[in-house]
Amino acid sequence: MEITLKVQRFNPDIDKAPYYQTYTVAADPNERLLDALMQVKRFQDGSLGFRKSCAHGVCGSDAMRINGKDGLACKTLIREVAEKDGDTVTVEPLRYLPVQRDLIVDQSAFFKKYRSVRPFLINDEPVDAKERIQSQDERMRFDDTTNCILCASCYSACPVLEDNPAFLGPAAIAQAYRFNADTRDRGFDQRLAVLDLPDGVWPCQNHFQCTRSCPRGILITKRINQTKRMLEAHEQKAPSEK
């Protein structure tokens, strides 16, 4: 089948504003959208800019908006976005992040927020054995969040950021939960200083768009709500117990 790729283009060095350019591509319904983009890049327009790396949904490099929804080009099949011959697939860069060129965005703000929650195990206590033992049940409390590939699809999908660009964002909060829920971690108070702010965890309105967009099936909205409950439980403790 033949499809039309309608790609948002923008080179800040020469363009005053973003614009759309169309390409006609022959594509098998079971091929990936990334394959179609690569056809354009290799045989039609070498100036087209987008990121890719592993092409197997592990690195998160090729996150973009596809027909208005956020996801990975390497995990999106042509038949999922184009039903019949001649259909148009609209491809745009992730939202809320500055466009560096075409589908490539500057993720500095996204990673700054991510780093602010200290997304690593914090524990200075002596270890009795070679490692800190954890049961399977304890691990399963946060298991899905360990699958995050930092693609920023959830960040772009979040409606809250449209009106509140300072919002910490779904990915950062989900990773804060990942370590706060870890029985081996002792960094709750340090993350509390970032999470318990007007632009921290509280702006989330349960739109579930982050969960729907996640290519790794992480229950992001649930993890955000669990983080809220952790903070509420902490606040309800007696001052002597804090």
UniProtKB/TrEMBL annotation:
<dbReference type="Pfam" id="PF13085">
    <property type="entry name" value="Fer2_3"/>
</dbReference>
<dbReference type="GO" id="GO:0051538">
    <property type="term" value="F:3 iron, 4 sulfur cluster binding"/>
</dbReference>
<dbReference type="InterPro" id="IPR025192">
    <property type="entry name" value="Succ_DH/fum_Rdtase_N"/>
</dbReference>
<feature type="domain" description="2Fe-2S ferredoxin-type">
    <location>
        <begin position="1"/>
        <end position="95"/>
    </location>
</feature>
<keyword id="KW-0411">Iron-sulfur</keyword>
<keyword id="KW-0004">4Fe-4S</keyword>
<dbReference type="InterPro" id="IPR001041">
    <property type="entry name" value="2Fe-2S_ferredoxin-type"/>
</dbReference>
<dbReference type="GO" id="GO:0008177">
    <property type="term" value="F:succinate dehydrogenase (quinone) activity"/>
</dbReference>
<dbReference type="InterPro" id="IPR009051">
    <property type="entry name" value="Helical_ferredxn"/>
</dbReference>
<keyword id="KW-0560">Oxidoreductase</keyword>
<dbReference type="InterPro" id="IPR050573">
    <property type="entry name" value="SDH/FRD_Iron-Sulfur"/>
</dbReference>
<comment type="subunit">
    <text>Part of an enzyme complex containing three subunits: a flavoprotein (frdA), an iron-sulfur protein (frdB), and diheme cytochrome b (frdC).</text>
</comment>
<dbReference type="GO" id="GO:0051539">
    <property type="term" value="F:4 iron, 4 sulfur cluster binding"/>
</dbReference>
<dbReference type="InterPro" id="IPR004489">
    <property type="entry name" value="Succ_DH/fum_Rdtase_Fe-S"/>
</dbReference>
<dbReference type="GO" id="GO:0046872">
    <property type="term" value="F:metal ion binding"/>
</dbReference>
<comment type="similarity">
    <text>Belongs to the succinate dehydrogenase/fumarate reductase iron-sulfur protein family.</text>
</comment>
<keyword id="KW-0479">Metal-binding</keyword>
<dbReference type="Pfam" id="PF13183">
    <property type="entry name" value="Fer4_8"/>
</dbReference>
<keyword id="KW-0001">2Fe-2S</keyword>
<dbReference type="GO" id="GO:0051537">
    <property type="term" value="F:2 iron, 2 sulfur cluster binding"/>
</dbReference>
<dbReference type="InterPro" id="IPR036010">
    <property type="entry name" value="2Fe-2S_ferredoxin-like_sf"/>
</dbReference>
<feature type="domain" description="4Fe-4S ferredoxin-type">
    <location>
        <begin position="138"/>
        <end position="170"/>
    </location>
</feature>
<keyword id="KW-0408">Iron</keyword>
<dbReference type="InterPro" id="IPR017900">
    <property type="entry name" value="4Fe4S_Fe_S_CS"/>
</dbReference>
<protein>
    <recommendedName>
        <fullName>Fumarate reductase iron-sulfur subunit</fullName>
        <ecNumber>1.3.5.1</ecNumber>
    </recommendedName>
</protein>
<keyword id="KW-0003">3Fe-4S</keyword>
<dbReference type="InterPro" id="IPR017896">
    <property type="entry name" value="4Fe4S_Fe-S-bd"/>
</dbReference>
<dbReference type="GO" id="GO:0022904">
    <property type="term" value="P:respiratory electron transport chain"/>
</dbReference>
<dbReference type="InterPro" id="IPR012675">
    <property type="entry name" value="Beta-grasp_dom_sf"/>
</dbReference>
<dbReference type="GO" id="GO:0009055">
    <property type="term" value="F:electron transfer activity"/>
</dbReference>
<comment type="pathway">
    <text>Carbohydrate metabolism; tricarboxylic acid cycle; fumarate from succinate (bacterial route): step 1/1.</text>
</comment>
<keyword id="KW-0816">Tricarboxylic acid cycle</keyword>
<dbReference type="GO" id="GO:0006099">
    <property type="term" value="P:tricarboxylic acid cycle"/>
</dbReference>
